[in-house]
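Honest question from a wet-lab person: if I give you the sequences of every part of a complex, can you actually get the arrangement of the whole thing, not just the pieces? Trying it with mine:
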Amino acid sequence: MSEQEEGMATVEEQQEMEDKVISPEKAEEVKLKARYPNLGAKPGGSDFLRKRLQKGQKYFDSGDYNMAKAKMKNKQLPSAPTEKTEITGDHIPTPQDLPQRKTSIVASKLAV
Amino acid sequence: MAGVAGGNDFQWCFSQVKGAIDEDVAEADIISTVEFNYSGDLLATGDKGGRVVIFQHEQESKNRPHLRGEYNVYSTFQSHEPEFDYLKSLEIEEKINKIRWLPQQNAAHFLLSTNDKTIKLWKISERDKRAEGYNLKDEEGRLREPYRITSLRVPVLMPMDLMVEASPRRIFANAHTYHINSISVNSDHETYLSADDLRINLWHLEITDRSFNIVDIKPANMEELTEVITAAECHPHQCNVFVYSSSKGTIRLCDMRAAALCDRHSKFFEEPEDPSSRSFFSEIISSISDVKFSHSGRYMMTRDYLSVKVWDLNMENRPVETYQVHEYLRSKLCSLYENDCIFDKFECCWNGSDSAIMTGSYNNFFRMFDRNTRRDITLEASRESSKPRATLKPRKVSTGGKRKKDEISVDSLDFNKKILHTAWHPKDNVIAVAATNNLYIFQDKIN
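Yes, you can. This is the full assembly:
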């Protein structure tokens, strides 16, 4: 945590102490809104549900992928993003990006 | 049958632990479902790697009659494999979401296992005899030359080492656009239901190319989507009744005799909320992660993020019992939202006599509630308390400023050690607790 965030935390703590009289849950909400002011007005609404329904969505175009693979031979492409970011149509996946899809037939360690 | 520790004559003790002790847990080894069969003789686990391991209860040894027998590996197989839906650019995980046993009807055992998209019916059968003395084949199975066969004999069945085989008998695929969260075998032993985020389908166990859609809550305009189906279960005795829970904390009971499409519920269970206490987190923590009928069929239990509620099916406006699992987390909701723990889906289960209920928590803690005495206990699944027949010591989380000796403070809890899946033997006081990649089996001490 940066020093700036720590400074802000004490202000939050003071506010939290006031809010604790009301409810711990509301105090937590205040804390969250302070950290993420852009959080949608509709909590748990359709954005959140839609993200849940789209779990597992990957965007892949074999033509783009092969073009990118060909380019890799010539120059270094930027390093792959972390797994959490969604790979959308804008970003062309490269062999580094694609997770290893192993059809593992390793025995479960419970069966030892 | 006693349910919960706390009395003078009842204590839980360690029996077995399965799985590796590695610090580095491979994702595939994370246990994703645990289920006893109807007799409690078999215990199945599924993991994120799509594998199923079945343990069988061995008879108690004559030397130590005060101990219950142990569970040892009976069969293991790869149930599901990772897939990619090229049409929709969807990665389909091989993780086993649920396993449900079928009631036993002959010597073989049957279970349903499902991942996000496909349900499979597996047959597990034993082979302990082998035919020997074939006429057309030799001992290695090679075909004999016809001119060498000069006499005829009757093959004899000889005993062989027990072999347990698992084979997929039915594959129920392509019926779910969204992710399957529940499967439930009906009491008619012919049909079962499968539920995803927006739809519930009814299948016949013999028919794989067709299923009836019985609930569809998908709105015409997806922008209007406000709630999803989180769990569903068939009534244990009435084959026309089932329930499903939602992300808004409500439960709907449906009667399949009333209509082919059960979009209109017969009963609607919801606890009234105090509007003044509503916060950003209210809806998220009210989302029901599991619903289970009692064995009697009179009650059902729901698990939301902070509590377990018991409902009387005859009373829709509020639960009859509410048990706090880890109320001390209410003042930590902000960080639990940030690290996604607030979306963890805990399961719950009844004991065989419906007198006690159990559910998991963090830090490898799990909780049990005795419905009669109203006592509760917190226990821990850890390697430290894994000495054979060691009694489990009750654990306590300190919430106030002063922390007593042996208590653990809320801030010291390990939120990566979650117990999401637990199972209670249908007849005995034996429980199975999945702690990430380890399976713990605890039993009561027979005094």
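Two things worth pointing out. Helices of chain A lie at 3-19, 24-35, 46-53, 62-72. The mean pLDDT of chain A is 65.
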